[in-house]
Amino acid sequence: MFNIFKKSKENIRYNLSESQIKEISNYIFMNNKVKNNVLYDYIIFNGDHAVKEKMEYIVNLQKKDAINKKTIFMILPSHSYYDKSSKNVKSTEEDFRDMLKSNGFENTIQILEKKYFASVEVHKDFTKLVDLNKKNRILILVNPRVIRRRYETAKKFNLPIDKIDWVGIAEEKDNINENNWYNSNEGIEIILKELLLIEDINFIKQINLDSQMLNLCNKIKQDKNEYIKYKSKVKQLTKILQYCKRR
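The structure corresponding to this sequence follows.
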């Protein structure tokens, strides 16, 4: 049962009903778990988010025989940092590679070039990166809040979603999740921004979310940096929703 707003002392700016919260939660946080008796050919993930949690998850997959020595780890580019011990600029994906090796994984580990920092580039070139004729099962580890967006992007580029599993891995310290996002303005706005990026107008209309999304767009317009980031999405969604409202 959703504990709607009971824990929050904030003045919530967005009037969401219990049914809307349930619909949004089910939509954004897709319940996509690893199936039994699956052996993955590829495991794809970023190296800079929920590192400890991803490593633990991968080790558990190995224990369940979902990974073998032929499984290929593909690490997407992330942020770099200065490694004082080696006096070199080192990337977090290189750290994850070293962590895999220290945990006994002798698998092929591919670190993608920097242009694949943007997930849309990964989806665009997916068939170049993965030989789908030879590889049958692919696992993608992502932040739980972006599973739906990645899934919809994969559909947009006609990827074989029947061969791909998406699993959400969150950092232990992540304070915005499926069970509490609706208890604060910050959480609500994070999730509504996901809907903004996904651009599923049918879903927004289906659960009568027009006014809340317009409120979000108006708030984004008041912040110069935010507006630069979401400008095209805000303009398009505002135009569509206002047009629908006039009809």
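The chain has two domains: 42-168, 178-246.
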